[in-house]
Amino acid sequence: MVVSEKNNSILVLGLGKVGSLAATLLHETGFAVTGADMNELVGMPFPIEKLDLRDSVDSKIISRFDAIVSCLPYHFNIGLAAKAHKLGIHYFDLTEDVKTTKAIIQMGETARAVMAPQCGLAPGFIAIVGAFLAETFDQIRSIRLRVGALPQHPTGLLGYAFNWSPEGVVNEYLNDCEVIEDGIHKWVSPLEWLETIVIGSVQLEAFTTSGGLGTMCDTYMGRVQNMDYKTIRYPGHAKLMNFFFHELLMREDRTRAGEILVHAKPQVNEDVVYVHAAVEGWKGGRLSREEFVRAYYPVEIAGRRWRAISWTTASSLCAVVEMVSNGVLPAKGFLKQEGISLSEFLKTKNGRRFAGGPAERSSTR
Question: What DSSP character marks residue 211?
């Protein structure tokens, strides 16, 4: 890969489960990476600056780079995006927060560089897949997008493990969800619209959660009758989470709710990420359905085994950075995930990890 001079040096903020891998992948792809974290980390193949990320990051630090990648909790991102916008450098993040994205969209209208939030798995990769399927139809009836990160060997009634940010999960379970229903743009409650899904003989359930569609409702309004995003879990999960948040009133203390859930269901190494996208509509006057169904498992990268949720999220982010650097994507303005070509995405060093047959184990590295 030839790295563009305008997108060579990258500051990755937040070196947690996903951020450390994203920085490693970008380094291996050929970028000049510097990491930033509150903690001292050793053994990374790139330099690290210890920063108190609870405070505002100094613009002088950011100005030394061609791009910044935020792997921090969503509430940091508006401030970081604003500084990148002012300095005219590229900005990428993983946020699923709707308000944060709307603020960055406004910045993109006058940006001299790329403003690209929502570059993870959902929102992110799932929108790229959904748009790819939708392109094959003359008229679209529905776009249904589902993603779930789960333990391969669930225990207990919840059947869950917190391999992802508890703050992000709690917000997805409590914030309203954007949908298109019968051609009307709506906001609906989370943890509703329960359905059964079967992937590779595994029975699962899916229900509404916030943020997974990204900007797709704006993009497809007037072009699709029904569109929604749902999170995939093992059967019975939604009922218990409704009990936890609403009957026990844990929705009134989101921080405490996250702490309780992580204490009860800590992360596991053997996870699986399910991706299920389905589009229905008409081709040549005939009603048809196209699907993209995958099950992604942990893989080895740079001599270390990484959880499925970590590598799918980090790889999606890094593939988008690659495409901007290669000139495949625009060099400035707000970047919609659904505007990214799936075929071009899969050609990148990081995007090719998503290739593979339906619902099979992913063994690409």
Answer: S
Q: How far apart are CA 172 and CA 350, in angstroms?
A: 27
In three-state secondary structure terms, 180 is strand
pLDDT value at position 259?
Answer: 96
Whether 326 contacts 1, CB under 8 Å: yes
CA distance 334 to 91: 10
Name the phi and psi angles at 166, rounded to 5.
-65, -35
What CATH class does 125-306 carry? alpha beta
Which tokens is 137 given? Answer: 């139809």
Encoded tokens for 319 = 């593939």
- Please give the Cα distance from 338 to 334 (Å, whole number): 12
**Residue 17 main-chain phi, psi, to 5 deg:** -60, -40
Is the pLDDT reported for residue 307 higher than 90? yes
Q: Which CATH architecture has domain 5-119+309-354?
A: 3-Layer(aba) Sandwich (3.40)
Say yes or no: do domains 5-119+309-354 and 125-306 share a fold: no
- pTM comes to 0.93
Residue 2's pLDDT is 44
pLDDT tens digits for 15-63? 998 999 999 999 999 999 999 998 888 788 899 988 877 667 778 889 9
Backbone angles phi, psi at 79, to 5 degrees: -65, -45
Q: Are the CB atoms for 134 and 277 separated by under 8 Å?
A: no
- Residue partners of 176: CB distance under 8 A and separation at least 6: 187, 188, 189, 190, 210
Segments making up each domain of the chain, as ranges: 5-119+309-354, 125-306
How many other CB atoms are found less than 10 A from the CB of residue 151? 20
In this prediction, residues 168-188 reach a mean pLDDT of 96
pLDDT at 8 over 60: yes
Share of the chain above pLDDT 90, in %: 83
pLDDT at 218 over 70: yes
Conformation bin of residue 237: beta by default, left when phi > 0, alpha when psi is -120 to 50: alpha
